[in-house]
Design goal:
Length: 369
């Protein structure tokens, strides 16, 4: 008998081996909502995930497949599957901290997940979305990589012409006009297009979440939104033209408004999404209000990519104390968005036809080669 699994297949990267990524991944694999929402393929290292599971008191429930093996090139019918990569062993570096080996390993996991997300429909290794556990930007730098973060790498590798970083939480939705750049450089890169893109992509995100006519509010850059030019002219010269451009495209965009009052209005329900001008302007209210359930989304990619809203947390790594809540929400949301973007299509690329395979009856933790 042939079974059809309609759940989307999600690539879950393990993150920096010395951070909390392996622990929160191990915890997320046991979550009932996660297992109901998606089939999971973990990109990481088996011995690292085994150690993290042991620290958290979790029995291994994944099937290991060596990433370099012939089996890894065919259909991965088991769930969940761990693709085990032969990378430098960051655990040999000792205590949790930024390391070259951690950067090399975590970058490998992400690059392979992107490759699989870009595969053609019907390819047995194709995944429908990618969820990334935290990487350490300093570790990437030590390994010789100069990417500011996941967002920029995903946009470049997927040839995304326009992209934006956004955050979704139960209390607030935010999209950013600029991301990982120094605060002093924001004024130099803030263009009409840089402001319009998160308005446009943020409206699309809201519609995919079931908000058919989203109300979008745009922050000013300067105190009190510039006070009509007294504290800066970016509001009139850059931000307002972007808002007007969006309105001309039928988007209910409004502003620019003073950021110190705007987020409170959004939390009270007046706005469906806020567009912030720089990283901390948008992230401080998100993390203050509900950091455990907020999800980071890269908008504008040809596939869904989400991540938790926290970092590697080296200070508590290895203790088993890290919360997996944000990662769980990231997986569930990625699955929801992956399905919603293909609903109504003539084909259903997220459905997997799984032929009977005696290996599917092996207990979790089995090494499949």
């Amino acid at each position: 008998m042939t079974l059809v699994d309609a759940r989307p297949t999600i690539a879950l990267t393990m993150g920096d081996p010395l951070g909390i990524g392996p622990e929160v991944v191990a915890k997320a694999l046991t979550d009932a909502r996660v297992r109901a929402a998606a089939r999971l393929v973990v990109y990481g290292q088996n011995h690292v995930l085994q150690l993290a599971a042991g620290i958290c008191g979790i029995e291994p429930l994944w099937f290991r497949v060596a990433a370099s093996s012939d089996r890894a090139r065919g259909p991965l019918a088991q769930d969940p599957v761990l693709l085990d990569f032969d990378c430098p062993d960051a655990l040999l570096d000792g205590r949790p901290q930024p390391t070259k080996s951690g950067g090399l390993a975590s970058k490998t996991f992400v690059e392979e997940a992107i490759t699989d997300a870009m595969r053609a429909v019907g390819d047995p290794r194709r995944v429908d979305a990618v969820v990334t556990a935290p990487i350490c930007k300093e570790s990437w730098a030590l390994a010789g990589y100069r990417w500011p973060g996941h967002t920029e790498l995903f946009a470049f590798r997927s040839h995304a012409r326009h992209h934006a970083m956004a955050f979704v939480s139960p209390k607030l939705r935010v999209a950013l006009a600029t991301t990982h750049i120094p605060l002093m450089a924001v004024r130099d890169v803030l263009t009409i297009g840089a402001v319009y893109t998160p308005i446009d992509l943020g409206a699309q995100l809201c519609r995919s979440l079931g908000i058919h006519h989203p109300r979008i509010a745009v922050c000013g850059l300067n105190p009190h939104a510039g006070e009509q030019g007294l504290f800066g002219d970016e509001e009139q010269r850059v931000i307002l033209p972007a808002v007007n451009m969006a309105r001309g495209q039928g988007i209910d965009a409004n502003g620019p408004f003073s950021a110190d009052t705007l987020f409170g209005e959004a939390v009270q329900g007046r706005w469906d999404l806020v567009v912030a001008m720089y990283h901390d302007q948008g992230l401080i209210p998100v993390k203050l209000l509900d950091w455990e359930h907020a999800v980071n989304i890269t908008l504008g990619l040809p596939f869904m990519r989400t991540s938790p809203d926290h970092g590697t947390a080296f200070g508590i790594a290895g203790t088993g104390k890290a919360s997996a809540s944000s990662l769980i929400e990231s997986i569930v949301l990625a699955a929801q968005l992956a399905v919603s973007t293909t609903r109504g299509a003539s084909t259903t690329p997220h459905s997997r036809v799984i032929a009977p395979d005696p290996l599917t009856r092996l207990p979790p933790g089995t090494d499949l080669g």
